[in-house]
Amino acid sequence: MSEYLIKNGFVFDPTQGIKGDKADIAVKDGKIVKSTEISSKAKTIDASGKTVMAGAVEIHAHIAGPKVNEGRNYRPEDKLFTYTPKGAGKRMAGGFSIPTTFKTGYEYARMGYTTAMEAAMPPLFARHVHEEIKDTPIIDEGAYPVFGNNWFVMEYLKNQEIENTAAYISWLLEVTKGVAIKVVNPGGTEAWGWGLNCLTIDDPVPYFDITPAEIVKGLIEANEYLGLPHSVHIHQNSLGNPGNYTVTLDTLKLAEKFKAKNKFGREQVLHSTHLQFHSYGGDNWGNFESKSKEVMDYVNTQKNITVDTGCVTLDETTTMTADGPFEHHLTELNHLKWANVDVELETAAGIVPYVYSPDIKVCEIQWAIGLEIALFTKDHMRTFITTDHPNAGPFIRYPRIIKWLMSAEARKERIDTFKHGAKMIEATHIAGIDRELTLYEIAQMTRAGPAKSLGMANLYGGLAPGMDADVVVYDFNPNTPHKPDDIEKAFSRAAYVMKTGVPVVIDGEVVNNGNKRTIWVHAKVNENPQVMRDIKDKFLRYYSVTQANYDVSKHFVPNPYVIEVDAT
Amino acid sequence: MSKSVTDVICPFCGTLCDDLEVIVSDDGKKIEDIYNACAIGAEKFMHAQAADRVKKPRMQQPDGTYKEVSYDEAVDYTAKMFHKARKPLMYGWSSTSCEAQSIGHEIAEKAGAIVDNTATVCHGTTLIAVQDVGIPSCTLGEIKNRADRIIFWGCNPCHAHPRHQSRYSIFPRGYFTNKGHKNRKMIVVDPRDSDTAKMADYHFKLEQGRDYELLSALRVALRNEPLPETVAGIPREKIIEVAEVLKSGRFGIIFFGMGVTQTLSKNHNIDNAIMLTKDLNEFTKFSIMAMRGHYNVTGSGQVLGWQFGFPYAVDLSRGFARYNPGETTSNDLLRRDEVDAIFVLGSDPGAHFPISSVRKIAKLPSVCVDPHITPTSEISKLHVPVAFVGVEVGGNCYRMDNVPIEARKVVDPPEGMLTDVEFLDRVNKRLDQLMGGKK
Amino acid sequence: METVTLTIKNQPTLYLEADTITPDNFSGKKASEIAALHAYEGRDQVTLGKYFEVSGEGGATAEDTRIVVKGNVSRVKYIGMKMTAGEILIEDNPDMYTGAWMHGGKLTVKGNVDAFAGIGMKGGEFVIEGNAGNYLGAAYRGDWRGMQGGVIRVKGKAGSDIGYFMNGGTIIVHGNTDVHVGTHMEGGKIIIKGNAPSKVGGQMVGGEIYVYGGIDVMMPGFKYAQDEELEVDGEKGNFSLFHGDTGERHPKRKGQIVYGKLYLRN
Amino acid sequence: MEGGKEKDAYTKACGIIEMDPSDLKKLGAWRGTNVRVTSKYGEVVVKAVEATQGPHPGLAYIPMGPWANSVVNPNTYSTGMPTFKGTPVEVEIAMNEPVLSSVHLVQKKCRGEA
User: Fold this and answer.
1) What predicted TM-score, i.e. pTM, was given to this entire model?
2) Which residues of chain C make contact with B218, given a CB cutoff of 8 A?
3) ipTM for the complex?
4) B324 to C141: CB separation less than 8 angstroms, yes or no
């Protein structure tokens, strides 16, 4: 079988605490092994003078499924003049903010990302999500089904029925081939069924007689009852509104009384996603300001929380979220085309294009807040880089974000070209921060950290023997002088990427479609006839499909990696 | 002994009913009875059983008659047609599975083809409108559970989507609509007294071709701006009254069909209907949905979407994807002589295109893949019969509200009959051979 | 200024996509280099030289380059696409996308143009001495940013959907148009010296439309404001001003609602 | 329609023109009379029937299929969609001319025989 030795690179691996030491990485049959375990026939990859890291792990992006595809189909202008023609073994690839599935796989791989999580799967549309995942080459993928506005969940949690909630979650993860519990605007999206919303954690959900706080607490409890690999993954109430940081702190505090219970080494009970959108002060767009410090001061003290940034990249992009009422609010602000889908018994989704302009003060402030969250972080194993792709910007901008985080000079250059630079500086902290993150911290934020938060640290995000051989070489020498743009360039086009032992990218170009897997979680629970009866009843009375036609059959997941959990 | 297959998906219209029960003979070869289907759906299943069904590919002869050929010859002819053509049109894709569509797209990339589906003559203009102004919509279960205001604009579900009203829109009792149709007010806009219009609480019998003006008038009424005495033949007072009815509901929906998409103004009609829906969301909750025709035209748009980024009329000729209805749409391509071969699968342009376009098809190298004999098959150079998707072979499909539902196999196809997927797969491999690893 | 003359010598059997025919691409090139520029017929990559006799050479810059296209080019698309400066004169009838996404310079067509001419136009001067097809000066599908600037003048008549999603610039049509003029218009000016049948200014948010001839059926969302004496395209006239489309959202400026303006010549 | 397009049932369902009874009377036609429908774009022989979903004087309706498509306006206004609805037509009695089946009609039109 295949053996490789990646020699003489500067290795950054937080799982082993390696901080740029020169080291060799040995690979045998798709796994990392000790150098002594490979034969002399191993193929050598010379990484001298270059940076070596594990394959990066995307914890939150919208890359597959109904709303992503609606975004593609309703934005022909997003494809105009962006296409890359087909090549040997490569399909044609196009789209800027919402790339085609082929382009999604190719572009992640070229940046050294080897695993990605689709952040919001509407259960009724799970089959669609998996069809797209199947057509996304190279990267391992999983998807989070949404639970925060689900009628079963709200009805069980209204009566504090944790065991029933857990049994329903276990059933849904299995039939949808899902990974984790995603919560989007808890209660607010159900309220949107009537054109309403829940803007604080205590706003009652119409008809269901429950509050967002009760939904979140109940789902955390059910998650830990099951011991799932990942924690509850939350997009909080009141996203995108001035002054919402108090709602954010209220929600985060809900996690305080829970403790992580799982066999996967995960320590947090709540992952709070795209925190940038939730760290706003002021009470209108005129006095809008950053509250990243207040939010991160709290996050830094709480070991049971992980977060991702949701950095604004200052591009024209396409916002899409299961937060239906937010997208309606946004289209009323920018008057751009609005798509919405309410999904029976489960969730909703909205889509609106958005132009983050460096000439608009609010956009400049949003840019600063995203970076501040990363820069105020004390433990980079708990804060991860995302753009909430494509909401705050397309994922292809990660190298640029890394540049901004690693270089105060690069940040200053950007600020200098802002139209409202002085006003932006007044409303944020960014100009006063001279911190520059290290490659080790970047490896924590993009590899080891997200893998640990996902409960997949045994597979991904590190280079220790026994882990999957996802190895990336960047043409970047940390020990020689460089310009900020060199960082962006190196991280945009990896010199070498290996996915589970197969070289997939060489010199920034895709050379192989790899052996992509779909990850899902099988959580075993005790038989629960009541929940099975409830499910049958809801399908008979309220769903528009029969229960027998709801399951995602196995052939939609042709190369699965199933994580087993036993909660019996 | 007969056996019963339950939860069967109906491969007829975009309603994609998934509760059919089919009674099948013990050997799994014959359909004996069908429950829950509408008359048209039942006929579709029974047609698969017709004794005079064509079972072998047929090649057109110089005198216009057809001669049986083998599947090998059919594969070879088709692959050679793609190899030779410089801009072939691959049309149809609406009555087949997503799996077949996906292989078709691989062939299209290699051949530099244009992939267009039946939306081009049904809801293509809807897709243009969605690209211009978006679309607030929902799944059909939302309507069943919540809707109290239902508009049918330029569509006649009583005939075209027979179970739509009983399953989703008018009669069912849902979570918040436990009185069924008594909870709902029904408004129909149609120049004719259609059977659907006869059931309505309000019927706007508008002048043909004035949908755009009437939609605008409703939007003007919502903003309390002045209106002319009549618009599209409808008195001002009626327009204002209906605007109030729409505002006063708690959850409304506009269903629209080809009466608006094919009428003058076309995409603009839908555009304005969508904007009316958006406006209504300032007062209450409102959605809008296209009454899609073929059972998997929606799926074709989805697969094209994630693979290329456009829902129909996708031009791959230059090695990358482009899209512009008016240029890359089948009827414009045929009218302007832009294509040099045509491959049809899962539709019948011979029956559904204007005769001027059909004449162009008859002149081109052409392959028609269809279980039936159709006007298209009888003017094509090659007709390839295949198994019926949804009856003799399964596969994924998308309902009119984009909900994916996997069609089931109910009976075996006749012996030796290929499926769409199998035929396309063989053409794809043959094309690879012809191209010698290039392209 | 240097002149390059392209004379068509072979007709494509399909259509020729010749987006390389711009002063920007021709500048600094000799005839042989221009003949070697790429074009497409179906999936085949070809050269301009296969279809055109090329004489003369490009100027030092696009600004110094003039292109004359001679012969039957009714099967040639994309002439002048994205041109930023210089001049093109097309003596016959080019096909679709003539002057599409044009930024600057001057493009003159002696004959007629087919659909999508001048879509997404940002600047420059585009004169069509014959007739124009549909979607003249319109937005590309899905884009809310249609024509932004520049002037399009049609001496003959125009098709449907002219100035769709228009944001700026001017379109002048001396003859009649088909349905849908300035739909979703937010800025700029459309002047129609002939008739426009119906659906004029539908969903218009801002901008100005002038119609000298008649409109068969007015959109319901236009309300009469006042009569105005105006100078339009160099001539004076008396116009009735209508505000609309009142079914659409409209911004407010200094407390006043800003409507789209539809002027009908009295 | 789903029973087979070469079959008589398809011709019976779609090879027709639904007309208002008053228009039929004006034309001097009865239910079931064959008529020739002519537009700017072509002509076709179909069977006149009384509109079931009416009344609508002046408005006639050929449901779908090659009969309708022999006379519709193919202009797409650069949208891809022919203008299937709202084509002005003239109707005259054509008592002795047959209504062709869909397959024969299309074949004949393509050969330039009809």
Assistant:
1) 0.97
2) 247
3) 0.97
4) yes
